[in-house]
């Protein structure tokens, strides 16, 4: 892959470009700047196509990272480059002078880093591809785990409903106890009320049995979930280790 794959990059705070690098001349710098002015401020990735080139942006926490690439380079290498410079820039300037730096004032310090990361990404496409696959697998595993967690939370809602119903039955049991207390002391309890108390007693007993069954089932389901999550995490660790160290030979 030729050196012209990535042709221009910059880091900006808002719409103020703090550092930039290119070895080429052309109107791509002004186009990239115009896109920056109209870019949404929300954390996200954006790509625009223009005249055989892609203008790739990564926006995070008020800072924008940009790289202009030839269209044939695809998305993988430009996005990998943006992730690398974001991590490097955040590590160097996070919470520091980047928050107040003026336009192009970080060129002297960070321009060479932009060049270094551009060169690395262009010269190591296979490694970039491998890391992208690992990230995709990690994202997929996270998606599965989040789906499973949502199911657990849904069960939690059902348990809360169960508690509410238990409280209602508890009040009915209190009525039953009151009725038997009155009967014990020879007071008269009307027949309809007695039927109501009797029905509530049967409901309470039936619900206790159902509650015990549900608790047992939930315990089994939670144990299954823990084993599944453990298995996923273990598989994820193995995938990452094997991707970085094939055959455990680092």
TrEMBL record:
Mode of membrane association: Single-pass type IV membrane protein
- Sorted alphabetically, which InterPro entries does this protein's record hold? Longin-like_dom_sf (IPR011012), Longin_dom (IPR010908), Synaptobrevin-like (IPR001388), Synaptobrevin-like_transport (IPR051097), V_SNARE_CC (IPR042855)
Q: Which GO terms describe its cellular component?
A: cytoplasm; endomembrane system; membrane
**CDD domains the UniProt entry points to:** Longin (cd14824), R-SNARE (cd15843)
The source's domain of life comes to Eukaryota
Q: Name one GO biological process term.
A: vesicle-mediated transport
Q: Which PROSITE patterns match?
A: LONGIN, SYNAPTOBREVIN, V_SNARE
Q: Does the keyword tRNA-binding apply?
A: no
Q: Which residues form the V-SNARE coiled-coil homology domain?
A: 130-221
Per UniProt, subcellular location reads as: Endomembrane system
Where is this protein chiefly located? membrane
What does it do? Answer: Involved in the targeting and/or fusion of transport vesicles to their target membrane.
What PANTHER family does the database record attribute to this sequence?
A: OS03G0165800 PROTEIN, SNARE PROTEINS
Q: What is this protein called?
A: Longin domain-containing protein
The species this protein belongs to is Gossypium lobatum
